[in-house]
Automatic annotation (TrEMBL):
Entry protein name: Molybdopterin oxidoreductase family protein
Annotated family: Belongs to the prokaryotic molybdopterin-containing oxidoreductase family.
Keyword Iron-sulfur included in the entry's annotation: yes
Domain called 4Fe-4S Mo/W bis-MGD-type: residue spans: 3-59
Gene3D superfamilies assigned: 2.40.40.20, 3.40.50.740, ADC-like domains, Dimethylsulfoxide Reductase, domain 2
Keywords recorded for this protein, A-Z: Iron, Iron-sulfur, Metal-binding
Amino acid sequence: MTETIHHRICPLCEACCGLELKVREGRVISIRGNDSDVFSAGYICPKGVALKDLHEDPDRLRTPLIKRNGEFVEASWDEAFAEIERRLPPLLAQHGRQAAALSVGNPSAHKIGLLLYFSRLAKALGSRNVFSASTLDQMPKQLSSGLLFGHWLSVAVPDIARCDFLLMLGANPLASNGSLWTVPDFKGKAKAMQARGGQLVVVDPRRTETAAMADAHHFIRPGGDVFLLLGLVHTLFDEQLVKLGRLAEFVNGIESLEAAVQGFSAEVVATRCGIDATTIRSLARQLANTPRAAVYGRIGTCTQAYGTLASWLIDVLNALTGHLDEPGGAMLPKAAAFASNTAGQPGNGRGITTGRHNSRVSGAPEVFGELPMTCLAEEIETPGEGQVRALITVASNPVLSSPNGARLARALDSLDFMVSMDVYLNETTRHADVILPGLSPLEDMHYDVAFPQFSWRNHARYSAPVFEAPAGQPSEWETLLKLAAIVQGKGAAADAKRIDDENFAEDAKKLFGEHAQAVIDATRGLSGPDRLLELALRTGPYGDQFGRKAEGLTLAKVKAAPDGIDLGELTSRIPEMLRTPTGKVELAPPALLQDLQRAAGDLAQPVPDMVIVGRRDVRSNNSWMHNLPVLAKGPFRCTALVNPADAQRLGLADGSVARISGNGRSIEAQVQLSDEMMPGVVSLPHGWGHGLPGARLSLAAERPGVNLNALLDEDWRDPLSGNAVLSGVPVQLAAV
Ligand SMILES: Nc1nc2c(c(=O)[nH]1)N[C@H]1C(S)=C(S)[C@@H](COP(=O)(O)OP(=O)(O)OC[C@H]3O[C@@H](n4cnc5c(=O)[nH]c(N)nc54)[C@H](O)[C@@H]3O)O[C@H]1N2
Ligand SMILES: Nc1nc2c(c(=O)[nH]1)N[C@H]1C(S)=C(S)[C@@H](COP(=O)(O)OP(=O)(O)OC[C@H]3O[C@@H](n4cnc5c(=O)[nH]c(N)nc54)[C@H](O)[C@@H]3O)O[C@H]1N2
Ligand code: SF4
Ligand SMILES: [Mo]
């Protein structure tokens, strides 16, 4: 019996661990961390092991489904595309392009075919109604980074390998394994930092797993980060701790910034954020006086009413203390492929703009080509010119992942037509008329497009498919091109590979002019994501420039290194990576200074009796991995964590059921007493609430849990980024 060993990157979360799979007779027999991986060195979490369960899950869709008389029936790929052609183009012809919307979800960031080809479909469709998980997540950080550095994906990450003081807000990498920061084995790296005398300080309304290993932990009033951060910035100016260092000549706006934070001294903000002024001032001093230090914030700082301000102030703190773009501080990775901050003219660019159009119903501004996910339901419900009547979801489960999913579910039922590209018949895709399954990750090649731009170390790693794709099942990039062809009127019979060739030739002409044919010749034999990757690697910052730098990277070289190619520690990149029109780091963007008025008006806001926040567990992944046996076992995890003092006040016992109400809706959740919680704050994980009628998730339905988003307000957004407010939402708790 022959066994084969396969090395590949885990596509399930942002840590991008290198895995080692042992395969016998077409079956995975074991999955472990790949000790030789240059980037993750053997680290793995339980979800990596669950890739086997995902591959084998009998509920995972392998055949397209078409809904006929309210029931899903299996169909061939030709039948499924024909059904879409029969129904979608006439709708567009009658009601216009805006009548169709796209909703794209988290897993698309982890599949190269989806990430590189989604934009082909979006362009072909020509609708402004594009919604994504980004506005339930990181859009504030993308916006603030875009304003500061000139590009949406230029996000500074802690250089943890050399850092001696890390201030972390609203993140729990021990459970999440990191986000907008690709850092497998955060715990090991943080321990190494502590072992060399460094310190980790965590700011979170819950004493999380990460907080528990930290040198200090501070509770914060949910949504209060902007005030804490303003207090820190104010202290730096007030105590003359500002030192820009090397960055001084590359920074704009320091005077306007100083003026803008005048009203936010540590003493003024203390009550609002729940952290006393002495602590704020001493944190500011520690940050300023530690030569190698960084501030990092994640989802807790983004999914709140001042998400963009908080995200911005984190980088402001790094800059003012001389830690931005310095070793051991917050640095900007240099990815081997696909990074806009390595393309075009080094040192300046067009910068970013928002609000090129607005959503029809609420008038929410476009941000990075998208509208807020929380506007989707109203765009479907509200009659008039441009009403959304058709929807294509791509790896997206907003019925669970977006606030007030019940309203969205009703809206989805009222659509004239809905297509889902997905791997499950779940809470969202049950509303579709046609479901087109994606390949199992193990049947697909992979290269991370986005995450090397946020990585703790520069690297290039390629994964070949472990198994052949089932006969006749297209890759997701081919499915996206087919859908693009259908909405462009080219017909369901259009050949995806041929369209891909044509698109590539067109792009090559635009990019390389007279050299286009040479590029086409040099990449002959490749197609799809492989060909785009070859082009990106060879023309990228480490590339062979099509032979001009013989030692440079090519796809063949990356493929020949199954453990990856290490491209070294992070390096200083300012000013070269800037793409702002001025060629400077814009520390004081006018839109952000203006938004400070809103924060000022909110300084005296009283403390609500009880607010709710979310949490993550290492055995979950948003809304879609509760059907996998290795992850589903063990203690029930969808519990409401309540501080014992609150519980006593409200008459709640450990293990009892509490009714949690908010925004006129309520759910019933099992109470778990925990002094990890800040008094006045309850924590419930998101992504639960399975067992809805029509879904096919047999294991998940056995312990469905309840949905946090059922309580949240779909109209509460950070106005700048359009991001949903998912944290710090007032609720009432009562014994049942
Ligand atoms: N209250 C609250 N809500 C939250 C959050 C929170 O912290 N609190 N977090 C938010 C965040 S950060 C995010 S990113 C979103 C995530 O929300 P979504 O973007 O909706 O993502 P998931 O919930 O992960 O659902 C992923 C969908 O993709 C499908 N899928 C999985 N693998 C594949 C594949 O290979 N191909 C295809 N085509 N489909 C696939 C799954 O079946 C599922 O339908 O949730 C957000 N919602
Ligand atoms: N195991 C697992 N891993 C995941 C995911 C998953 O669902 N499960 N999801 C992936 C995705 S899509 C993402 S975006 C990342 C997210 O990665 P992280 O940002 O690390 O996400 P969380 O673990 O939810 O940690 C957020 C923390 O913010 C705290 N918090 C809530 N409100 C506030 C606030 O107002 N201020 C402050 N300072 N803190 C607050 C919460 O208590 C929580 O501890 O994780 C990714 N990795
Ligand atoms: S931490 Fe777990 S889920 Fe994330 S990439 Fe690594 S093995 Fe996969
Ligand atoms: Mo996310």
